[in-house]
Design goal:
The protein is of the alpha/beta class. Helix content is 54%, strand content 12%. The protein has a five-stranded parallel β-sheet with strand order 1-5-4-2-3. Strand 9 (221-222) and strand 10 (225-226) form a beta hairpin.
């Protein structure tokens, strides 16, 4: 049985037993089709060596060297991954442009007798589909946008909604960032822009248009990543806003819990505060840095909220979200699970 090409539109609506990305590990890490596994036919160093030979020697010599490496790598993947696969196993294989790398893997699998399919246009075709869909897919679900000051529990409420069966899109979770200058997660770097967009695309494709979709109010950027413009525009212009409110002491406690990791990296925290110098002045930032070094985290977070986050955040929100002035208020006692569960139930009952 030989391999059969398949276009991206058909592939996205089909079912496969495996989706095999044969690009190098670094290409795979940057982004890949949902559910794909990485069986590189050339690793990063091998790809560099063959590419250099292609440019500096000749395409013919590069293909000879590359073919031998590819054949050995494919043999290793088959030995490791394919031995127990049944004859009816149906994989989709792709590379960057649907060329020689995926063609080689798909051919070998087809010669064994598997019904392998090679993605026409490869990852490049998939990426074009993602970009097109993010620009044109209508956001048909009813958008419910959770707005509120820093530390008011919007993320925890969103998670509570998901736990109770609500339909949510956690953009900060997908971005691995809480959205502020201090919002980076410890030991968890942000994905690249392409990966972020693929994760959003995957979530939007799975929406039930008959159910509300809950999101947090976000600016155009979450850390270093940009929210797709069509989605952000729908949030701003179509979203029904809810104002999430929490007493200041409870907000401070929530920030102490969510940002407690900075106690183990005071120097890193102070370095991040340095970015606020232009907005808040050297003396204020120096005072905040000293409070961190003195361990006065509660006092520091309270002052950061009053002097930095609250004024700027509310001003930006009211400029961006048209319905905020008419938003109903959802009062939370604190950031604990019971309070979040009650608030989520209130939202879900009221739709």
């Amino acid at each position: 049985m030989s391999s059969t090409p398949i276009a991206i539109a058909e592939a996205l609506s089909a079912t496969f037993d495996a989706i095999i990305d044969v690009r190098s590990p670094s290409e795979f890490a940057e982004d890949h089709l949902p559910g794909a596994v990485n069986w590189p036919v050339l690793d990063d160093e091998q790809r560099r060596v063959v590419g250099t030979m292609y440019k500096q020697v000749s395409a013919f010599e590069a293909r000879k060297v590359g073919a031998a490496i590819v054949a050995r790598n494919i043999a290793a993947h088959i030995d490791r991954e394919v031995a127990n696969m049944p004859k009816g196993w149906k994989p989709l294989v792709y590379c960057w442009r649907g060329g020689q790398r995926s063609g080689a893997m798909a051919w070998f699998l087809g010669q064994i007798g598997f019904n392998s399919r090679q993605l026409t246009g490869g990852y490049k075709a998939f990426r074009a589909q993602v970009r097109q869909d993010l620009e044109t897919l209508p956001i048909t679900a009813q958008l419910r946008v959770l707005c509120g000051r820093t530390g008011s529990g919007k993320t925890r409420l969103l998670q509570a909604l998901g736990q109770q069966g609500g339909q949510i899109l956690d953009l900060e979770g997908l971005a691995c960032h809480r959205g502020s200058v201090l919002g980076g997660l410890p030991d968890q770097p942000q994905p690249g822009q392409k990966r972020f967009e693929t994760l959003i695309w995957q979530a939007l494709r799975g929406l039930d248009a008959s159910k509300p979709l809950y999101l947090e109010s976000e600016s155009r950027k979450i850390g270093q990543l940009r929210v797709p413009e069509q989605l952000h525009q729908a949030m701003r212009e179509q979203g029904q806003c809810w104002w999430v409110d929490m007493p200041e002491p409870a907000r401070v406690q929530l920030l102490l819990e969510d940002y407690g990791h900075f106690a183990d990296d005071v120097d890193g925290f102070c370095a991040k505060l340095q970015a606020l110098t232009e907005l808040r002045g050297k003396e204020t930032v120096a005072r905040w840095q000293q409070a961190a070094r003195d361990g006065d985290w509660a006092g520091l977070f309270a002052e950061l909220m009053r002097l930095h986050y609250d004024p700027g955040y509310e001003r930006s929100l009211r400029q961006s979200y048209r319905q905020l002035d008419h938003a109903p208020v959802l009062e939370l006692e604190d950031g604990g699970p019971a309070s979040m569960a009650r608030a989520a139930e209130t939202l879900l009952q009221g739709h």
